[in-house]
Write a structure and sequence with these properties.
Layout: E1 6-11, E2 14-20, H1 26-36, E3 40-46, E4 51-58, H2 64-103, H3 106-115
Antiparallel strand pairs: 1-2, 2-4, 3-4
Length: 116
């Protein structure tokens, strides 16, 4: 399976994903890898200036179809993690204000809203 941004291949029951750094931040890759650490041994390593590699070695032997399913799920989760990071970057300040106001004493809310 070859896609722009994620290239996967299987080798000896392991799965290699090559991720384009232009699409995925380090934080998204590590968050996704952590989520899959209970299913697979995860190894992350630099491939080039523009790519990072992720080896997934399942904890139990799996058929190629199952490895393919894991690759697809990993890719979807990676995209979800990246979108979360992008949204937080865009809307993080708004979220902080909402949380701050939710826990602020009532007499301070009006003054804080005027500051923002």
């Amino acid at each position: 399976m070859t896609r722009r941004g994620i290239i996967s291949q299987t080798e000896d029951g392991k799965l290699l994903l090559t991720l384009a750094k232009e699409f995925f931040l380090r934080e998204a890759v590590f968050a996704t890898a952590h989520k899959y650490s209970n299913v697979c041994k995860v190894e992350i390593f630099p491939v080039s200036e523009y790519e990072v590699g992720v080896w997934l070695s399942p904890n139990a032997p799996l058929a190629d179809m199952e490895l393919q399913r894991i690759a697809e799920e990993f890719g979807n989760e990676l995209i979800d993690q990246q979108i979360r990071l992008d949204l937080d970057k865009r809307n993080g300040r708004i979220r902080e204000l909402i949380v701050k106001h939710a826990f602020a004493p009532l007499d301070n809310i009006e003054a804080e809203v005027r500051k923002a």
